[in-house]
Design brief:
The structure is a single chain. This protein is mainly beta. The protein folds into two domains: about 30-60 and about 150-213, Immunoglobulin-like, CATH 2.60.40; about 65-150, Immunoglobulin-like, CATH 2.60.40. It has one helix at about 5-30, and strands at about 30-40, 50, 70, 75-80, 80-85, 90-95, 100-105, 110, 120-125, 130-135, 145-150, 155, 160-170, 170-180, 190-195, 200-205. A five-stranded mixed β-sheet has the order 5-11-10-7-8, with no helix packed on it. A four-stranded antiparallel β-sheet has the order 12-2-14-15, with no helix packed on it. It is globular, with a radius of gyration of 23 Å. About 25% of the residues are buried.
């Protein structure tokens, strides 16, 4: 079939544009980004919180797939570190057979919950981003952390120091790593990291030795 010259050029240009458009969209599409957090000796760091700052104009809802809940079980906080969005209300169910009284003196959200018993739940709202260090007035060995974040892109590392954050656009991004043993203001490491979806980003952070070891 023979097209008139102007019509042929328009058709060819449209075909070329349609051909490159999916490639452009695919390159810019957010994807899963994986991390491994290790200490200065190369050992994996468990329960580190990784946060990626959102880009300007990001409209993703500030929420996570897990429950905003930290139980007391076997005289311990479970999980030991909980990530919640700013403004979240956290439930503290008591699954032990003894009573607990939870408190925090941390600046972002000091609070105290009086004694409550087995199978009872108390809750607390956290409106400021930062780290809430928890204790129990009755059991001094209990310690936990609520990390309140203002980004929807956050995750906690597992026993191998590994974590994955979904929906992150690649490129040079601001990253924060928090852990109670990190040598830094507020237990934080901060830096700009070139994130490549599909590739593991290994970050080394300096930490203090474990007390008593």
């Amino acid at each position: 079939m023979t097209f008139p010259k102007p019509l042929f050029l328009a058709f060819a240009s449209l075909s070329l544009f349609a051909g490159i458009l999916p490639a452009i969209g695919t390159a810019a599409a957010p994807a899963a980004v994986s991390f491994q957090i290790v200490d200065q000796a190369g050992m994996p760091l468990r329960d580190a919180v990784i946060e990626v700052a959102p880009l300007a104009g990001d409209t993703r809802r500030l929420a996570f797939s897990w429950r905003n809940a930290m139980a007391q079980r076997n005289l311990a906080f479970v999980p030991g570190t909980l990530i919640v969005p700013k403004g979240a209300t956290v439930a503290f169910p008591n699954l032990d057979t003894v009573r607990h009284s939870i408190y925090s003196f941390s600046k972002p959200g000091p609070f105290r919950i009086d004694l409550y018993s087995h199978d009872q739940t108390r809750s607390q709202r956290f409106d400021n981003a930062g780290t809430i260090s928890l204790g129990c007035n009755i059991h001094d060995t209990m310690q936990g952390y609520v990390r309140v974040v203002s980004t929807p892109y956050a995750a906690r590392s597992d026993g191998n120091g590994l974590a994955q954050i979904d929906g992150v656009s690649g490129g040079r991004r601001e990253v924060v790593v928090w852990h109670p043993r990190i040598r830094g203001i507020g237990g934080e490491w901060r830096g700009k990291v070139q994130l490549v979806p599909g590739q593991r980003n290994r970050l080394t952070v300096a930490v203090r030795p474990i007390a008593g070891k």
